[in-house]
Design a protein that fits this description.
alpha+beta; 773 residues; binds adenosine-5'-triphosphate; three-stranded antiparallel beta sheet
């Protein structure tokens, strides 16, 4: 390789080494690649790298999708780092020769690019965010409702600078002047210099300050070239957003797939977990983007899900026949819907996932809901079956509105039969329910052509039902995660007779809206925490949606968020809110890793931290004896004791103290573990492990748990004792024979055993009780 090649030397040494390793000596001369001292025919650099990408796939099993256009070089360089993906062991790291060795051997120094580094298994990246705008509604079909906005002068100047690509403020002022109005009182002051001249030309007649100019709110500019969107929001004023991709309203489904989903499909096949989610207001085109128009699986209009499945299946077929390494693979799909706290299996007629609500996450992620697929017919069957089962309804905002969040999960298990290296990756495709304002979707009142209109005061009205039943949180949620306006609106249509069935329908719609909004609120909170470096707790457990998406959002998977939005002025508040969400997601940086069971690894890591923390607590905790005054609760009626005179017993109580910080840490770890495993904190604390024996509020367990105290001197004083349930003795201790022959509290005479037992249980329970009390 030519050492003097400046463009090649700019690449990091490890990359240079790896390219050399892969393609032999090479040199880049402008747009032509020189390989092994021979010019590669007429191959341009881009063409040559396309060829290398293909070789990388065939020889090393590293997949790259055939994206048209330039950029092959960058993709090749990125993928080259994964060339040892299917190789067992470390991949043969070549150590850097030390300076002394070099001198001894008297060999010419090894160029930096020849030194081999350990292959990368992790990649740092930010969540990729793209924005897609729905075509404008035709006028007269609800597309017009132009809210007027008065921008402050500096924003107005900024807007003109952005839209007209002007740099100088003086040029902007000329535009403003030409437009005829804007400045109000400041007109003369700002333009004084120029106006002086102009006024002189106008025979000295004073210029009257013109009326304030108003702008129409909404999307002002969609700039796919620079991936920029300019918004004028009625409450927030001018806003400029930058994303990884901005697609114009007219682009095809395949362009959206190429820009927002395709790179992640390659990552998925290469063993990374990946998440693609669509977010936006109701009716903004999320389902259209994810699945296609109105559930149609027509080739041209197909959305991301069928396209992704087609690409994965084609790639797997190709890999089976063409790769030089023998690969075995199995692709499965799960399709679930999240409605409030219920997760249902759309491929099993909407049956609940798992036997209990808490088990849903474990059930879904363990693959219990999965179906093997091997061709597109299987995929289309799953999509059709799932679609029939989905909650859909007609609202004023969308004729076919999804009334819950749905999650399509692809799971790919692959193994290199030669090296035995296996990899499991998951692709989460989430079609989130749309955030909606009740007054716009009119689910509380119905829409004349969908549901009969109900007044709040009417019996069975959904509005009054929710108002009565709902707490503040529900009402807030009903208005969407960022509701800018007050709540349930006035009924706009004429009242009409109410039937119970319409009442129920409306209460269903309203409940759905609340559930959707609550899930989205929880999602926003998670994104906020992920963006806050000071926060070490992400509230995934706040909703089933965030629990299921936890590994995709904050975990080690690659993620892409597609913000769907409407351009119309009347939707500008929701559009700004959706774009702001996208911007917040874009700031989240993560480390993605290839490899198998990420969840198990994470849980194992937390487990080791739990053990460490428990050891710290053990070292620090101590029993302290305190005096407690207790009243005789069983005193006979009419006695002095019952009337409050006397009847007070002073008891010595032994209390476990110390290690408060560690307990708090333990509590956090237990919570985190519960989130990851989809269980409850109760079971993490010991409910499951000890056969539910340490359930809260139960005799013995209560004394050891929430009460945080053990009354060791109380063995004879039955009057002051809670009734003890023999079942409450931890099974694990019974088995070990530590409390052999346990029959009741009278047998609890071995103080040491009790102390030991209490400490063991309390370490976890106190961590919980101490923090949550
Ligand atoms: N880019 C687009 N081009 C053409 N039509 C679109 C586009 N996006 C959405 N639509 C149409 O707009 C309507 C609403 O879209 P869709 O059902 O996908 O919205 P949504 O965001 O999923 O709504 P919800 O949250 O209520 O389910 C559909 O009729 C759909 O075909």
């Amino acid at each position: 390789m030519g050492q003097g090649n400046s463009s090649a030397e700019r690449l990091p040494p490890q990359v240079l080494f790896e390219i050399h390793n892969f393609v032999g000596d090479f040199e880049e001369r402008g747009r032509v690649l020189v390989l092994n001292k021979y010019i590669c025919g007429v191959l341009t650099t881009n063409g040559a790298y396309r060829h290398y990408l293909q070789r990388l796939h065939i020889e090393k099993g590293v997949y790259s999708n055939p994206v048209p256009g330039p950029g092959n070089k960058e993709r090749f360089l990125a993928l080259l780092r994964r060339q040892d993906l299917w190789v067992g062991g470390e991949g043969g790291v070549e150590e850097e020769a030390s300076g002394e060795e070099k001198a001894e051997d008297d060999e010419p120094p090894i160029p930096l690019w020849r030194q081999r580094a350990k292959p990368a298994t992790t990649e740092n990246f930010n969540i990729a965010v793209s924005a897609r705008f729905k075509p404008k509604e035709p006028e007269g079909e609800g597309g017009e409702d132009n809210a007027k906005v008065t921008l402050p002068l500096h924003q107005r100047i900024q807007l003109i600078k952005m839209s007209r690509r002007l740099k100088k403020t003086s040029d902007v002022l000329k535009v403003l002047k030409h437009e005829g109005a804007w400045f109000g009182d400041k007109w003369q002051a700002l333009e004084s210099n120029e106006e002086d001249t102009d006024n002189k030309e106008n025979n000295g007649a004073p210029q009257t300050p013109p009326a304030q100019q108003h702008l129409v709110s909404g999307v002002h500019e969609i700039d796919p070239m620079n991936d920029r969107v300019v918004m004028v929001d009625p409450t927030k004023g001018l806003r400029e957003f930058e994303f990884d991709a901005v697609v114009s309203p007219k682009v095809s489904q395949s362009t959206v797939y190429d820009s927002s989903a395709r790179p992640l499909i390659a990552d998925f096949i290469n063993g990374f977990n990946a998440t693609i989610l669509v977010y936006g207001q109701t009716g903004s085109g999320k389902t259209y983007t994810m699945f296609g128009p109105n559930g149609s699986l027509n080739n041209g209009d197909r959305g991301i899900v069928p396209r992704a499945c087609a690409e994965v299946l084609t790639a797997l077929d190709y890999r089976k026949d063409q790769l030089q390494i023998p690969m075995q693979s199995r692709l499965t799909v799960s399709y679930v819907e999240i409605y409030g706290n219920d997760v249902t299996d759309l491929l099993k007629d909407g049956a609940p996932c798992g036997h209990s609500k808490v088990a849903a996450q474990e059930y879904v992620l363990s693959g219990a809901a999965s179906h093997q697929i091997s061709c597109m017919d299987d995929v289309l069957n799953c999509l059709t079956t799932g679609d029939e089962c989905k909650r859909k309804a007609s609202t004023a905002m969308n004729e076919r509105s999804s009334r819950a969040h749905s999650l399509f999960i692809l799971e790919l298990n692959q193994q290199n039969l030669d090296s035995g290296v296996s990899c499991k990756s998951r692709l989460f495709l989430a079609d989130l329910g749309g955030c909606e304002q009740i007054k716009k979707s009119k689910v509380n009142v119905g829409k004349s052509n969908h549901l009969q209109v109900l007044k709040d005061e009417t019996m069975g009205s959904a509005g009054s039902f929710m108002k009565r039943a709902g707490n503040g949180k529900e009402e807030a949620a009903a208005e969407g995660p960022e509701a800018p306006e007050p709540q349930i609106s006035e009924v706009e249509s004429e009242p009409s007779p109410t039937t119970f069935s319409t009442g129920f329908q409306q209460s269903d719609r309203l409940r759905e809206a609340v559930y959707i909004n609550l899930g989205l609120l929880a999602l926003k909170q998670c994104v906020k925490s992920l963006n806050n470096p000071a926060s070490n707790y992400v509230p995934y457990s706040d909703s089933k949606l965030t629990l299921l998406l936890s590994s995709g959002l904050g975990g080690d998977s690659k993620s892409s968020v597609i913000v769907c939005a409407a351009q119309e002025s009347k939707h500008s508040a929701e559009t700004t809110s959706a774009l702001l969400f996208g911007q917040a997601c874009r700031k989240i940086s993560k480390t993605a890793r290839t490899g198998a069971n990420m969840l198990a690894e994470l849980v194992a890591k937390i487990d080791s931290q739990i053990i460490e923390t428990e050891a710290q607590i053990k070292a620090k905790e101590r029993w302290e004896v305190i005096e407690e005054k207790r009243k005789d609760t069983l005193a006979e009626e009419g006695t002095m004791e019952a009337m409050g005179f006397g009847g007070v017993e002073v008891k010595k109580i032994t209390v476990l103290v110390g290690a408060e910080e560690e307990r708090e840490k333990l509590n956090k770890l237990l919570k985190e573990r519960a989130q990851l495993t989809g269980t409850t904190l109760d079971s993490e604390i010991g409910g499951d492990k000890y056969g539910g024996a340490v359930g809260f509020g139960k005799g013995y367990a209560a004394a050891y748990g929430l009460g945080k105290s053990v009354d060791f001197n109380d063995q004879d004083s039955y009057r002051f004792k809670d009734e003890v349930d023999a079942d409450a003795v931890p099974d694990v201790l019974k088995k070990k024979g530590k409390v052999a022959g346990w029959k009741g509290v009278d047998d609890a005479h071995d103080q040491k055993t009790l102390e030991k037992m209490a400490k063991k249980i309390n370490r976890r329970k106190m961590a919980y009780a101490g923090v949550s009390a």
